[in-house]
Amino acid sequence: MKISEVKSLPRLSDLDDSNLVVFYNKSDGVYLTADIAKKEPGLAKYLENFFKKITKRQEKQDKQDKQGDGKNNSLGIHDFFYVGSSGDSYQGLLAGYKKEIDNLDVLRLGAKIAKRMLKQDLTKSHIILPVGELGNKSEHFFEGLGLASYHFSHYYSDKNRAPKLKEIVLVSKGGASSAEMPMKRVLVDSVNIARDCGNIAGNDFTPSHFKKRCAQLSLAGGLKFSVLDEKDFKKLGMGCFQAVAKGSAEPAFLNIMEYKPTKFKETLLLVGKGLTFDTGGYSLKPAGSMEEMKFDMCGGATVVGVMNLIATLKPKVRVVAMVATAENMISDKAYKPGDIFTAYNKKTIEVINTDAEGRLVLADSLAYGVDKYKPTAIIDLATLTGACVVALGKGHTGLFSNSKKLTKLVQVAAKEVGEHVWPLPIDDAFQEEIKSDYADLKNVGSRWGGASTAAKFLENFVDKTPWVHLDIAGTAWDSKNVDFYPSKGATGVGVRLLCQMLKDWQW
């Protein structure tokens, strides 16, 4: 989607195959710049009358709902159809907004408008941004537009199935640009890169494809790139990662991208689960919705999205990002329930369920990262447990941590960008759940508290390093109740959160 900026709107008669978005609030009415009102007096009168009808209808509804306090400044988004003096007709949206509006409100407004425009049969839209609070926060409006206008249509043979909207033009009296706008452009691109990685079919996005994507991104962003393969897993004693990997004909990799500023005091280790497809192994998943297991790499995709922005963001902290990628398949070489393997940190693990493979891959990745890079803090992201979805639904990411300080950093960043995280427990009772009779640990506990036992399992591999685990099983795809997420497919959850945290980094 192309989003550009201009200072003035051409005559409506020159707007070919385009719609118009105009804003209003209850106290000021409809906003049109003086030059537009002069060029199109009929439009100005039409919209003012439309606004009055909307206001009356809302006031009537308020009284029926016993909410008639007259303070409702956000009156929704309405379609309009205007016929000009020349006989030309134009469709558009009249969008209400609060006069006092914060950054997230602006972002959500932009997202709602983008989703409405995608449903219209037009290729272009002109949006007239008001002066004042909304116009001054144009970079957040742009972010909402960019996030919500994403649509994955890579495999459509009939291109008419895809939304026709190709360009959005922001019209602002003083120009919509701000110092933050270039950063927002890269941020939106980074989220959409993560979404693309998740949405591509598993046969077209294998661990080898994932490795190539990490290498290309590292080269483009000036990052140091290295990779461990299955020979390295064996040599280094990464028995858990090797066990999961050996069931597939596709090779597995631990991709490592490193950003290192000239001066730094701390190192942040990011680890993303990148299972490009998960059958469940011999603990086979049910057939219903197994096709969604191409999304089991969304934690790794988030890490890729974050590292795409790193060169632009230039945080003050060293960032080491690991994408642990493999397939969990069934074959004569696949691991089995009852098998016992030794992790990188020498802990032994009994496999109870081969569908709990993500924690095995992460166990070796985390332990290796701690030993190799001596991080100040660790954040891992994984579509780890269905139990987390049962507990929190599709709108909240589960947060587990051994550090109040790191938890606070994540929570503050999450609130700033409008991504919901919810803390869940990992006290010592959950360690009892994963004790094995035959090894140090087993990879699943009882059916109760599954998200917490999975997180507690991972804690065994971070030593005493401050650590946050984000279980994105509910928020990584098909999260329909968030305005700036697509209603279908990968959401790119976590990219904006982690980028905000890195931008504000203060340990």
Jot down its keywords.
single chain, 507 residues, alpha/beta, Leucine Aminopeptidase, subunit E, domain 1, Aminopeptidase, 2 domains, seven-stranded mixed beta sheet, 16 helices, 20% strand
SSE arrangement:
Blueprint lengths: L1 E5 L11 E8 L3 E2 L3 H6 L1 H24 L12 E7 L5 E8 L6 H16 L5 E5 L4 H4 L1 H11 L18 E5 L9 H19 L7 H15 L2 E5 L1 H7 L2 H7 L7 E7 L7 E12 L19 H16 L4 E11 L11 E3 L5 E3 L7 H16 L3 E6 L3 H7 L4 E5 L2 H14 L3 E3 L5 H5 L7 E2 L7 H10 L7 E5 L23 H9 L4
Parallel strand pairs: 1-7, 2-5, 2-6, 6-7, 10-11, 10-14, 13-17, 14-18, 15-16
Antiparallel strand pairs: 2-3, 4-5, 8-9, 9-11, 12-13, 15-18
Strand order of the largest sheet: 8-9-11-10-14-18-15-16
> What integer is the average pLDDT?
91
Q: Low-confidence parts lasting 5 or more residues at pLDDT below 50? A: 68-74
User: Strand pairing plus helix content: what structural class?
Assistant: alpha/beta
| Count of the separate structural domains | 2
Named at the architecture level, the CATH assignment of the largest domain is 3-Layer(aba) Sandwich
CATH homologous superfamily label of the largest domain: Zn peptidases
Could you explain how this protein is built, in words?
The protein has 507 residues and is α/β, with parallel strands linked by helices. It folds into two domains: 2-174, Leucine Aminopeptidase, subunit E, domain 1; 187-503, Aminopeptidase (3-Layer(aba) Sandwich). It has 16 helices and 18 strands. An eight-stranded mixed β-sheet has the order 8-9-11-10-14-18-15-16, with helices on both faces. Helix 3 (103-118) packs parallel to helix 5 (138-148). The longest helix has 24 residues, at 41-64. 50% of the residues are buried. Mean pLDDT is 91; it is low at 68-74.
